[in-house]
Design a protein that fits this description.
Chain C: InterPro entries: AAA+_ATPase, ABC_transporter-like_ATP-bd, ABC_transporter-like_CS, ABC_transpr_MalK-like, ABC_transpr_MalK/UgpC-like, Mo/tungstate-bd_C_term_dom, NA-bd_OB-fold, OB_MalK-like. The complex is a heterotrimer. By secondary structure, chain A is mostly helical. Helices cover 76% and strands 0% of the residues of chain A. The two termini of chain C are 38 Å apart. Chains A and B meet through helix 1, helix 3, helix 4, helix 5 and helix 6 of A and helix 2, helix 4, helix 5, helix 6 and helix 7 of B.
Chain lengths: 276, 328, 392
């Protein structure tokens, strides 16, 4: 075999390993979700008897559907708010000179590193006092807060990559500052905004701790937390299949997002984090 | 930063006021208020206005709770016995710090953090090199590797839980009959570490891959002409040049791993001495409804995180991750 | 079309640094003027102040007789071409060129006509639907020019528009810009750090250093009559040779020998309190191979000097001989250090550069007898850098 061919085989082997690493655990949950409840304890990797019943089951479950609605609603609202105010701050941080800029960045960094559990205890008590406990806003507020550092860092990197000369050129071409922003900066920053929005949404969607701590019923509880409250429909029924199906349902949209925007997400994830 | 910008202005004929030095360095050397032109003053105002909403939300949602948390930690405050609420100074701290449960959770957290981050570093580096250098299907590999990142932690944790559940799981099947790894201390900690590693290695790999991109191809070619083998090239050229990226990624992941909650909650819920500090703080709050003790733990966790960050930065001289780009 | 007048214009930053000192400049209608100088000389700041991208700290700027200091860039009716081209990456070539017209709310039909016209002038009609990313450097440059000319502004400002191009393309684009400017007759202010561009493009050159204008004049004036050491060193390639010289009764003592003082020199020295030490400047072009000159002109009126050829560069149309001078240190002067942008000659080792006719038989490693005209010698005051022979 030639050197090139050998190397190709070697890399193919490495790629297959990576593939197995990424896919086997996912395939396992998927397979579990298609298993018939009666055969679920057989311990085989693939189902011996395929069924959709786990999926129909969870969509008949009002709590889970409610959890999905909560997750989507709370996630979308938090993302939108974080993107809007984060974009403003990121633009200022990337483009303007003003005292206090490093403080904004410092606070963001502190929050990004802050252990969420340490906010849970006081927020639990404060939100009960403000009647925010077990409501959408009660989750949206901390989600925005933890999505903001990510938004500000990622977007300010994107803004910095837009050359200054373009804004100057727009001014010379007769644009007002707002026209320059709307016709030149916004279109160029759009890919960055979309990427950041996806990252922020994933962050909110993924949360578990706030959701189980700051809710007490399905009124505002998000899907991941709802799953952890799954019990079988009777005392003797095991919820494994339903949980697996629900896990797949909440995972699929994110995985599709991630795969679809792969390139952008990689640049977004690494831009804010690694250039230190 | 200001030194950079000033240097560029002096050497490059670029104009400090127009910010051709990417703007981020500006303002650092601005002079007295009265010397500011109208343009610069309005720039300041705009900057403040644009940052105000974000800063306000961040400070309101974290600032007051942090203060409140400290206040709660100084009180006897159990929601089950609200009548016994009282200021007790540092008694809660004494209680927590003399509790074997706390220290057990602390050491478990630290162990899981250190072990999982160490494995992630090695595995992530291998993965990063594979993604960066592979000749076959680079796009597919780079895409698929994001799957663990995309999966909701809780969902993945259930996958691992059932995989190791006797009877149900395919992995439990390879173990000797009668073993239930999730109910034994060390196997459970191993599984917790495994699921943590599986989920976050791709993220680590992405950070490291960005670091790999900073290593100039020419330096590697030159080393190879100088007679360095692949391992030597990696050790003598790639690693030193990647050091900042590695340290930043390590710090970032350490602080993140120290907060571990979702995986343990699903896998063992802290049974068999597998609690992390986040788990026992949660249980004290939600199950125990003991605000005083819960807050004390919250404060102690913040202190621990701060100490880790401080030690890391001091010992290894790393800069904080996520600093404004372009100042490599 | 308009003249641009800068009246004692200055740029001062809040931290106290002054980028441009009281600058007086009258740019005539239709003139092509070059701002040139080393990095940090204030040329770009000046351009940005004319553009309105930077505030003017002091003084007054008028364009077409109208005060512009407080006007926003868009109200000044001037177009600018950037070093980075600053093409909008999300717009096609057509949209890029049409952008200023769109902002000015010009109707669709007129816009189409004007864009087509600009594209025709710049020969980019085949590229109109491409995005900037799919263009070569030269093509991007043309699009940037197109965006500038399409709205027929009062003036063009160009900020090092050619410095991102490779050498060959730069020469092509230089002629294109020159032709275009003549054809349109629009007042143009062009910033560059490259003296060759300055010499070949401009009607007049403004040579700046540390925020101060050193000399304003036509390329010939700056080349032949430099006001000071800095101008003499900056203009011309290869640079003028500078040698220390002492003034004695019998003439100018220097490494080339003793040069008798001509009436011109004597008058210049007397006018400046007869200094004892001067810096002698002589361009490489002032030398000639003495052997060739004697063939054509046997009487040999000029002075000669014999030196050892260290390196001989043959460029086809001309030859450059680099002659090692023993026993003399390089002239140390901040004026020259600025002109050469830090590339100061070796202190212990000075080379004289002579431009020779291609027919010269000079060989590397051999001695050569050089002929030179004493009237081509400039004398500079070492401290101030003033050209004594030009300021009588």
């Amino acid at each position: 075999m030639s050197r090139a061919a050998r190397r190709k085989v070697k890399w193919t082997a490495v790629d297959v390993l990576v593939l197995l690493y990424a896919l086997i655990p996912v395939a396992w949950i998927a397979s579990l979700s298609f298993k018939d409840p009666a055969t679920i304890t057989k311990g085989t990797f693939w189902p011996t008897k395929w069924t959709w019943s786990n999926y129909t089951g969870i969509f008949d479950n009002g709590d889970f559907v409610r959890g999905l609605v909560n997750s989507i609603g709370i996630g979308v609202i938090s993302t939108l708010v974080a993107i809007v105010i984060g974009t403003m701050a990121a633009y200022a941080v990337a483009r303007l000179a003003f005292p206090g800029k490093s403080m904004v960045l410092g606070i963001s960094l502190l929050i990004a590193m802050f252990p969420q559990i340490s906010l849970v205890t006081p927020l639990f008590q404060i939100e009960r006092g403000l009647h925010l406990f077990n409501t959408w806003p009660g989750l949206i507020l901390p989600y925005i807060t933890f999505a903001l550092p990510l938004t500000i860092y990622t977007l300010s990197t994107f803004f910095r990559e837009i050359p200054w000369d373009l804004e100057k050129a727009a001014k010379m071409d007769g644009a007002t500052p707002f026209q320059a922003f709307r016709m030149v900066i916004v279109p160029l920053a759009m890919p960055g905004v979309v990427t950041t929005a996806i990252l922020a949404f994933i962050l909110c969607w993924n949360d578990f701790l706030f959701s189980i701590s700051l809710t007490s019923s399905s009124r505002a509880r998000t899907a991941p937390a709802t799953i952890s409250f799954f019990t079988g429909s009777s005392q003797f029924e095991d919820p494994t299949g339903s949980i697996a199906a629900a896990a797949i349902v909440i995972t699929i949209p994110i995985v599709v997002f991630v795969l679809f925007f792969q390139r952008r997400i990689v640049s977004g994830l690494t831009s804010g984090a690694v250039k230190g | 930063m200001s030194a950079n910008a000033a240097g560029a202005a002096a050497a490059g004929g670029s104009r400090p006021g127009s910010g051709s030095a990417a703007g981020s360095g500006r303002g650092a050397g601005s002079g007295p208020e009265k010397a500011l032109s109208e343009g610069r003053r309005s720039e300041r105002r705009l900057g403040w206005w644009l940052c105000a909403p974000a800063a306000l939300v961040m400070v309101l949602v974290t600032g007051w709770p942090i203060v409140y948390s400290v206040l709660l930690s100084l009180q006897r405050y159990d929601l089950r016995f609200p009548g016994r609420k009282a200021w007790i100074g540092f008694e809660n701290y004494a209680t927590v710090l003399s509790s074997s449960f706390w220290w057990e959770a602390f050491w478990v957290t630290l162990l899981v953090t250190v072990v999982s981050v160490a494995i992630e570093l090695v595995l992530g580096m291998a993965l990063a090199l594979a993604m960066y250098r592979t000749l076959v299907g680079r796009g597919i590999v780079r895409t698929l590797v994001l799957i663990p990142y995309g999966i909701v932690t809780v969902a993945a944790a259930y996958g691992w839980k059932y995989a190791w559940t006797p009877g149900t799981g395919w992995l439990a099947g390879v173990l000797p009959a009668g073993s239930a790894p999730l109910t034994e201390h060390w196997p459970a900690i191993g599984i917790i570490t495994l699921s943590e590693v599986w989920k976050t290695t791709p993220f680590m790999a992405l950070l490291l891959m960005a670091g790999l991109a900073l290593v100039p191809e020419d330096a590697l070619k030159a080393a190879s002409m100088d007679g360095a083998g692949p391992w030597q090239r990696f050790r003598l050229i790639t690693l030193p040049l990647m050091k900042p990226a590695i340290l930043a990624a390590l710090l970032f992941r350490m602080l993140d791993a120290f907060r571990i909650f979702d995986n343990i909650y699903v896998l063992t819920n802290g049974a068999d001495s597998t609690s992390s500090v986040s788990i026992i703080a949660y249980h004290n709050l939600i199950s125990g409804l003991n605000l005083g003790i819960g807050s004390t733990m919250s404060v102690l966790i913040v202190v621990a995180v701060a100490v880790i960050a401080f030690v890391f930065v001091k010992l290894l001289g790393t800069s904080a991750p996520g600093r404004p780009a372009g100042r490599r | 079309m308009a003249e641009i007048v800068l009246d004692r214009v200055a740029k001062r930053y809040p931290d106290g640094t002054v980028a441009v000192h009281d600058l007086d400049l009258d740019i005539a209608d239709g003139e092509f003027i070059i701002l040139v100088g080393p990095s940090g000389c204030g040329k770009s700041t000046t351009l940005n102040m004319i553009a309105g991208l930077e505030d003017i700290s002091e003084g007054e700027l008028t364009i077409g007789g109208e005060r512009m200091n407080e006007k926003a860039p868009r109200d000044r009716d001037i177009a600018m071409v950037f070093q980075s081209y600053a093409l909008y990456p999300h717009m096609s070539v057509r949209e890029n060129i049409a952008f200023p017209l769109k902002l000015a709310k010009v109707d669709k039909e007129t816009t189409g006509k004007k864009v087509a016209e600009a594209a025709h002038i710049l020969d980019i009609e085949s590229l109109m639907d491409r995005k900037p990313i799919h263009l070569s450097g030269g093509q991007r440059q043309r699009v940037a020019m197109g965006r500038a000319i399409v709205r027929e502004p009062k003036a063009f400002l160009m900020d090092e528009p050619l410095s991102n191009l490779d050498a060959k393309l730069r020469v092509q684009m230089r002629t294109m810009i020159s032709r275009l400017q003549k054809r349109l007759g629009t007042t143009t202010v062009y910033v560059t750090h490259d003296q060759t561009e300055a010499m070949t493009l401009g009607d007049r050159i403004v040579l700046m250093r540390k925020g101060l204008v050193q000399q304003v004049g036509t390329p010939e004036e700056l080349y032949e009559h430099p006001h000071n050491l800095f101008v003499a060193g900056f203009i011309g390639s290869p640079s003028m040779n500078f040698l220390p010289a002492d003034i004695c009764d019998d003439g100018l003592h220097n490494v080339l020998g003793v040069i008798p003082l001509s009436t011109r020199m004597r008058r210049a020295l007397e006018a400046h309190h007869a200094p004892e030490h001067v810096i002698l400047g002589i361009r490489p072009e002032a030398f000639g191979d003495a052997r060739l000159i004697r063939e054509s002109r046997p009487q040999g009126r000029d002075l000669t000097f014999t030196g050892h050829v260290d390196i001989l560069e043959s460029l086809g149309a001309e030859k450059f001989a680099y002659i090692d001078l023993e026993g003399v240190g390089a002239v140390q002067s901040e004026h020259l250090a600025d002109a050469f942008q830090g590339h100061v000659a070796d202190e212990r080792h000075v080379q004289l550069v002579a431009r020779l006719d291609p027919k010269s038989k000079a060989r590397e490693g051999e001695d050569i007898e050089l002929d030179y005209d004493p009237d081509a010698i400039h004398l500079f005051e070492p401290e101030t850098g003033l050209n004594l022979t030009e300021s009588v």
